[in-house]
Protein 1
Amino acid sequence: MLGSTVLRSDFAVLAGLEEFGPLSQAELGRRLGMDRSDIVAVLDRLQAGECVERTADSLDRRRKTVALTDVGRSYLNDLDAQLGQVQDALLEPLTAPERAQLMALLGQVLDKHSN
Amino acid sequence: MLGSTVLRSDFAVLAGLEEFGPLSQAELGRRLGMDRSDIVAVLDRLQAGECVERTADSLDRRRKTVALTDVGRSYLNDLDAQLGQVQDALLEPLTAPERAQLMALLGQVLDKHSN
DNA sequence: GATAAACGTTGGCCTATCCAACGTTGGCGG
DNA sequence: CCGCCAACGTTGGATAGGCCAACGTTTATC
């Protein structure tokens, strides 16, 4: 499934779909800060791997609604686990409170800039 | 000079040259974590803009020693100033002590992983 | 009913990163 | 001394990511 290599954009789209639920491609791109055209390519990949479904929107025929499949959800879980391990290895020099502090500071920076 | 667009790799190489002093291309790449072949392209750009000098190493004729020119040094100063402004804007949500804390934590992570 | 806007899609350009290969030069062991 | 291997700078190619322009289709606006 999905060829051997895992792309960051695959993860971003899968995680976005889980977080936001079914969505149009354009809206997904807006929320992820990705270009519409790049979303298309990622979805083509993910759809070929059965991780994602594209459904014609009945109310607005310009739109296609994208949704995670069960395969996609379990694939995302795999990736989440792997990411967790990598993140732990990366932050291993820090104690747990230091990690929390770091996350809090970065979160603060992100929050204020997304408004 | 150097065409209008500023590349991150330009800055990396200029800053590396200032920090490390004159160096062979391969050694520069090693210290910056960049591939030899990519260093070549950046140096071609920088040399065309007179920011950098390539000198044949007399002791080892395989090597070329790269050094910052005065033009390069002043260009680097420009970029440093611009970068400082962007960084300030980015970290604006944080108080000065928070910024210091963030830098310290990130530095800790970096340090432990470069050994 | 005409004009403009949003949608998905294609294609292109550029930066960044990585890897393979080449010819040249230096170091080393037999 | 010579042959082999390693390091050097360089070229070229592959892939990922980001951005933008254009198209045909569909919807909204005036």
Protein 2
Amino acid sequence: MRATIRDVAREAGVSIATVSRVLRDSTAVRPTTRDRVLAAADELEFVPSALGRQLAERRHAANGIVFPDLSGPYYAEVVLGYESVAAELGRSVLILSTRDRPDAESAVQAMAERCDGLVVLGRTVPDAAVERLVVRGAHVVMVARPPVGGADSVNARNRQGARALTEHLLDLDVRRLVFVGDPSTSPDVAERLRGIQEALPADADLQLHHVDSLDEECGAHVVGDYLTRALPDAFVCANDELALGMLGRLSAAGVDLPGRVKVAGWDDVMAARYAGLTTVRQPMRELGATAARLLDELISGSRSHPTHELLPTQLVVRSTTLGKVAP
Amino acid sequence: MRATIRDVAREAGVSIATVSRVLRDSTAVRPTTRDRVLAAADELEFVPSALGRQLAERRHAANGIVFPDLSGPYYAEVVLGYESVAAELGRSVLILSTRDRPDAESAVQAMAERCDGLVVLGRTVPDAAVERLVVRGAHVVMVARPPVGGADSVNARNRQGARALTEHLLDLDVRRLVFVGDPSTSPDVAERLRGIQEALPADADLQLHHVDSLDEECGAHVVGDYLTRALPDAFVCANDELALGMLGRLSAAGVDLPGRVKVAGWDDVMAARYAGLTTVRQPMRELGATAARLLDELISGSRSHPTHELLPTQLVVRSTTLGKVAP
DNA sequence: CGACGGTTTGTAACCGGTTACACGAGCACC
DNA sequence: GGTGCTCGTGTAACCGGTTACAAACCGTCG
């Protein structure tokens, strides 16, 4: 059995209070006593129990993060940014993927019991579940999702990015475009679609192509649907993976790109750069990092009113949208 | 303040022991008493404190996982497989990325205090640090890394996969090949290189091209180095991302592929399929899932002797290694 | 009717820390 | 020499659960 604070106290001939004081450096302890305690702790290889400490301090020193999935670069990057800041702030990170989990809500509730606050990403649990968390006093930050109840939120400027992208396409004489994605599953995606709609003039035509998932496989499938009928001037995809999947399939089918059709993605994942994909960059890692900071403010109590951060997006034009549409 | 078990006991007019019994369903409680307790718990919206429970049970009901990074599909998939099984087993998952962290070892030690066992992936902390964990009684499973001390391990059959890939290339008359990667940073990569060396006949030529990192950017850089000198017959990359980066740059440079040079990757990430990349598939998610199961056996004490699992790899031939080398 | 055995329930001691409060020692000051 | 202060340390009560053990209760049987 591992040594406890009482063992150390006995070994050093002091009380457990003194041991605790030495180890947390809280109040003055006579140097000779301190040395005795440290020697005893060293001798017994004492490591304080995280559980005992947490219970006494009534804090977990841990944050949670809930995401739908980790396949694909987007969520992974957000989690990475989050973990990195949380670690700096001395907090551990608990993860929870709602992927294939029918009991997502109860899993999130259970997680909330194990941390001081948590971040909820995109389409994971319903708003009502988040509200319940907040009502119960949990500290919650939403990412890539409109704020719920009194929770904080961090979002990218999706509308703005969508407008910039749309204007760029309009400059290339694009008039018939297809949005590939499912606005019903992700609030972020819905925002992007809305931004495009707002920027489009009346004489332009926007179709919505639903997909089941936002991965490369789906992108490739979408192309299949268009090989037998008329291609639009441009495809705008809900994320880069869809777009990359389309690129592969289009080039395999021998479609001239960007001459015959243009393709744009969203996120600016690393692969987009190497594929020459036009996209809207959003600061994925910074989304996670900002969420971690907001959460820390909530937990430490340095702020009580909800905050809603908007991070910039940026149009990145590459070779998949070069040149005007042929008349 | 939230209700505690004592509040519920008072409200129901029973002792805390009875409340605890009702809530954990351990021993027989008279139905009428049970109902009173449940009603009281409901009334007070009682949710048992995870910390109190954990301290009393002396278990965290949480597992850790340590990885170098989360950019790129490989680690993300392993983590996903791990989380999914851990959740099934009723355990939370703590993550720790050693990326850009100078104090990785102490961070891992701290994490070990907060969970019942942990998984250490690839190149993260030195062997000595893992040994210290094991000596201190921590349950440790290594993934993509040779076992250390008494720890369990889960690995893919790297040598076997490398041999299959090499034989495939030899069949195509490849004689001069370049391995792109850094065997010194990752034991997995070193194994792959060794497998190739073992399978190569004496008249073949294998060069090693070091890279700083295993991402697409590095892959693109590598190509730059070869555009001014002779290309080998084939590049074998330590992972798919390197290979994908090379593909993009090679095709931009107008190099005939697979005619002039062949390229192979490793992992079989989703993008590899759409890029037509020949690669060696390893079951990334299953690596994580297996680690979670082994860890559970260690923690539950159902097994005490170390186990070392080897998961299959599989050569996946696609268009980047089609046709024989031109004489 | 009392002994006996099984079922329910309560008491209290944990788990391993933190910390409010009290107490004693040492010192300066009047 | 007594008073009052500061400094260092110990006592004990927490934090919020689980659980060994004992006790109380109830029905049955001799």
